[in-house]
């Protein structure tokens, strides 16, 4: 898959995995401090879930939708007013925002980790699940920092509209109504530069790549153990590599693969194109991706020391 395209771009793979909305607040944050032993235990549980369910893509999306709400223009306000990787996505209303369709199921998969290691914050669990999803899919090891403090109530949720649009709305604009007005633009590239949300019921119900048939894993083996459905950006959507950057701008690729306006603009915009072309080299992509992922995972976070 294409867990890649990171930070500047639209992302990755397909298989939209889960759809049940969460209507009640989940358990509040623990006030316990976190130890390295807790983090190690949580990681080992998360690795087990990833290996069994091949749910890396939805964990990456969960983590980035928690952190990507961070509004820099509010960064000087008291924490957690500017949003970010603070675990607020677990609460209604944030989990029910249009952009978060399908993510309640991902949180549910991670609840046993919180139960087993209550000292580890949800914010850390979400970010850890994403970083491990990347690593186990063949991507780079990300230099993660843990000890995030959790938002404790629905009042600390970000407003709807702080994540980017893949396609323009009916008025021909990306962002705007339903999103953060300050990121509104007729151009996908400028909207991406400004950042905000909307990625509901995106793509086809299923494709030949996500219909339950075998798909490739990072070790070269194949699996059918995944939640079928959705549209991928690349054929081997459970493998983390740079294939997004060799697929989107290649007109001869399979027509069932997703190519959003926000994807294609990366090769059309003079500012983005040098990076889109550079990342046709996998080493260059991994190096930049690891740094971008780390930065994204810490947006708006407040850390306490790990004991
Ligand atoms: C910046 C603009 C971005 C746009 C416009 C965008 C758009 C989308 C859309 C429309 C989907 C399909 C959601 C659905 O199935 O309903 C999606 C899925 C996904 N996105 Fe993004 N995205 C962006 C950034 C990112 C970033 C930065 C990451 C990773 C750090 C990311 C990771 C993913 C993953 C892993 C999926 C697949 C989830 C799954 O298969 O369950 N996206 N994105």
The Rg value, from CA coordinates, equals 18 Å
Heterogens: protoporphyrin IX containing FE
CATH topology: the name is Peroxidase, domain 1
Would you report the number of β strands? 2
Number of domains: 1
Helix content: 25-40%
Largest sheet: 2 strands, antiparallel
Q: Give the neighbour order of strands across the main sheet.
A: 1-2
CATH class: Mainly Alpha
Name the CATH architecture: Orthogonal Bundle
Would you tell me the structural class of the helices and strands?
A: mainly alpha
Keywords: Heme, Iron, Metal-binding, Oxidoreductase, Peroxidase
Region (Disordered): 151-189
Protein name: Plant heme peroxidase family profile domain-containing protein
Family: Belongs to the peroxidase family.
Structure in words:
- The chain is mostly helical and 307 residues long.
- It has a single domain, classed as Peroxidase, domain 1 (Orthogonal Bundle), CATH 1.10.520.
- The protein contains nine helices and two strands; from the N terminus they run αααααββαααα.
- Strand 1 and strand 2 form a beta hairpin.
- It is globular.
- Protoporphyrin IX containing FE (HEM) binds next to helix 2.
- Belongs to the peroxidase family.
- GO terms for molecular function: heme binding; metal ion binding; peroxidase activity.
- This is Plant heme peroxidase family profile domain-containing protein.
- InterPro entries: Ccp1-like (IPR044831), Haem_peroxidase (IPR002016), Haem_peroxidase_sf (IPR010255), Peroxidase_I (IPR002207), Peroxidases_AS (IPR019794).
- Keywords: Heme, Iron, Metal-binding, Oxidoreductase, Peroxidase.
